[in-house]
């Protein structure tokens, strides 16, 4: 049903398929035109599997309590079944941050640009927290530019296929894409909405060309609560918790540790990260970068109980003082 010019019908509306936008394990996304108004829509067409889209629709219905535009969340219009496929109709957005970053050949963004993105996504996370919802899959692919030409760096959070109520997180063992996975998920610790803050921190770090594997050893009280801790750490009487060596990890899991390729030998901690960022001879840029790094450190705290919340981050001076808020 995704061929060009094919008509897709819901109970209320009809849509003409114009082009395929992407596909994945879930199914395909197509750009369509709503016949009665000529408005452009994006329709997510799921593979015909049992319960396909059930969790996502539940999350999207819960989000109807929120103003999608005000809270930088994709606007959901309707869901329906067509020829055995669950179809979800959304507003059409321009381009993912992943594609945008690739198109600029991975060149880092300026702090002023990252700050605008951060502020909008922190608003989105704060809104989700207010209704007890956790996205669980924040990554550049799931952050869309609305229209970069007319509204530079106006973004919205998309894809709630893995979203869960905070109260049900204890029932899952593995969430989030690997590069954006919070340490408490890896270690089997109790989970809450702080996992989304971690993922967002990783995304922002990516755009400033930062290595996110620089957070230090988790505290003893954190490690004691984890169900997967023995895979990565060993408790000794003399020195307490120590990180397992590559050989020990392979012996315990049967998996070899991949060699790191991108870590700069001069970068040993977060405080060294501004060395990677261009243009720091400008005192204003340097000051903003240091402020951004201070926020990033708090978003990427290894202890989720001490990690900054979205509401607290929105009060951080990098988001409210140095640069004027974007108006969209």
Automatic annotation (TrEMBL):
<keyword id="KW-0547">Nucleotide-binding</keyword>
<dbReference type="InterPro" id="IPR008271">
    <property type="entry name" value="Ser/Thr_kinase_AS"/>
</dbReference>
<dbReference type="GO" id="GO:0005737">
    <property type="term" value="C:cytoplasm"/>
</dbReference>
<dbReference type="GO" id="GO:0005524">
    <property type="term" value="F:ATP binding"/>
</dbReference>
<keyword id="KW-0067">ATP-binding</keyword>
<feature type="domain" description="Protein kinase">
    <location>
        <begin position="15"/>
        <end position="320"/>
    </location>
</feature>
<dbReference type="Pfam" id="PF00069">
    <property type="entry name" value="Pkinase"/>
</dbReference>
<keyword id="KW-0418">Kinase</keyword>
<dbReference type="InterPro" id="IPR050494">
    <property type="entry name" value="Ser_Thr_dual-spec_kinase"/>
</dbReference>
<feature type="binding site">
    <location>
        <position position="44"/>
    </location>
    <ligand>
        <name>ATP</name>
    </ligand>
</feature>
<dbReference type="InterPro" id="IPR017441">
    <property type="entry name" value="Protein_kinase_ATP_BS"/>
</dbReference>
<dbReference type="GO" id="GO:0016605">
    <property type="term" value="C:PML body"/>
</dbReference>
<keyword id="KW-0723">Serine/threonine-protein kinase</keyword>
<dbReference type="GO" id="GO:0003714">
    <property type="term" value="F:transcription corepressor activity"/>
</dbReference>
<dbReference type="GO" id="GO:0003713">
    <property type="term" value="F:transcription coactivator activity"/>
</dbReference>
<keyword id="KW-0808">Transferase</keyword>
<dbReference type="GO" id="GO:0042771">
    <property type="term" value="P:intrinsic apoptotic signaling pathway in response to DNA damage by p53 class mediator"/>
</dbReference>
<dbReference type="GO" id="GO:0045944">
    <property type="term" value="P:positive regulation of transcription by RNA polymerase II"/>
</dbReference>
<dbReference type="InterPro" id="IPR011009">
    <property type="entry name" value="Kinase-like_dom_sf"/>
</dbReference>
<protein>
    <submittedName>
        <fullName>Homeodomain-interacting protein kinase 2-like</fullName>
    </submittedName>
</protein>
<dbReference type="GO" id="GO:0007224">
    <property type="term" value="P:smoothened signaling pathway"/>
</dbReference>
<dbReference type="GO" id="GO:0004674">
    <property type="term" value="F:protein serine/threonine kinase activity"/>
</dbReference>
<dbReference type="InterPro" id="IPR000719">
    <property type="entry name" value="Prot_kinase_dom"/>
</dbReference>
<dbReference type="GO" id="GO:0046332">
    <property type="term" value="F:SMAD binding"/>
</dbReference>
<comment type="similarity">
    <text>Belongs to the protein kinase superfamily.</text>
</comment>
<dbReference type="GO" id="GO:0004713">
    <property type="term" value="F:protein tyrosine kinase activity"/>
</dbReference>
